[in-house]
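Late entry, zinc ion complex.
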Amino acid sequence: MRVIFRCQFCDAVPEAATQLNLEHSLREFAFGQYLDALPGRWLVWHGHGLLGPVRYACAEHRGDLTAFLRENYGTIAPHPWKRPPYPTSVRTAGTDRALRLKAQGGQGFF
Ligand SMILES: [Zn+2]
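Prediction complete; structure with ligand written out below:
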């Protein structure tokens, strides 16, 4: 079954490559996390729980999505205030951070 993604501010639908990355993002386990979906530069919000459902915005409406989330959830959690750049995957972000810590000789994940 094909999942239909739609920008919450207009009727835009992602092109094929971005669609694929959005489908991958459904498998992420994130709470209160922005994710970039490339190459179309869509923005995904993984809210969950108090932070609401998963939401999508096209490249043109990324700013509208962050503004919307900050207005609606900005007082209950710091997550909506996170600044870009956003990761494309939570797993990748964690791995990158661990590698960076390791490179700095710090106490990391390993
Ligand atoms: Zn849009």
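The mean pLDDT is 87. Will revisit in the morning.
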